[in-house]
Amino acid sequence: MSELVTGEAVALELRPARLPSRALAVLLDLIVVFTVYIGVSIGLAAATASLDDAAQLALAIAAFLLVLVGVPIAVETLSHGRSLGKLACGLRVVRDDGGPIRFRHALVRGALGVVEILMTFGVVACIASLISARGRRLGDVFAGTLVVRERVPVGQARFVPPPPPWLAGRFAELDLSAVPDGLWLAVRQYLTRMQQLDPQVSWAMAAQLAGDLATRTGTPAPPDIPPAAYLAAVVQERQAREARRAFAAHVPASPTTPGSAYAPPVPGVPPAPAPSAAPAPVPSPAVPAAPPAASTERPATGFVPPA
Fold this sequence. Notes:
membrane
């Protein structure tokens, strides 16, 4: 695992891509790029047949630089590190701090890729990737980037630890509508990995996230609660609210709900007819008649038929 920390103070558990997956991604990218380059070269040869040799050579060099160097740089910049080959293999290029790459990172990687991949047929890139502890080639070293795996097996997913029992329901009145999804993700990632961090680093991260969460909710965090416990309690409160909303959207109407026509069936008793639209008459305050002698025995179902 790569020990990276993002700008939101979240420890990322990134899995650096190794040589086989990176080689497959580069091979797929080269197939696509060379196919485009051959098509562009054929088109230029047909369009510049009337030009002299110097002009044709200049156009050929320009096409080489544009297609084999410029296109990969543009694709990685616009896709934030996901080329076609990397997308197929579940890889992505990120910065050393875990953030998305920019044009300068893609430019350095693409320029050095011409030397270590195209001119040496990938020998230099393979040697550098094998020597590096995180599988980085020279372009990644000079650009400050890292190729990581985005697809993690489902079995490796971790659960958020619950808060202390004495915090259950304490933040029921907290307004969580202004908390963005990115902050929720940061808090969840911290809670699932806080046991792997140094205690001082873990406390500092929890305090920073608790401060951000308190700013979004408009209510300061209680000073008598540890930051990690506060984060866990607020996350549990959010999960409880989502569960209540999901349950309320799918549960049928309760028999005690006013105006509900739902009535649970009673074994051995035929269902009652549907009530009419007219209101039922109000019964008189007369003394109810005694039940007949034949029906004094209570049925096995516990239901007593009306008199």
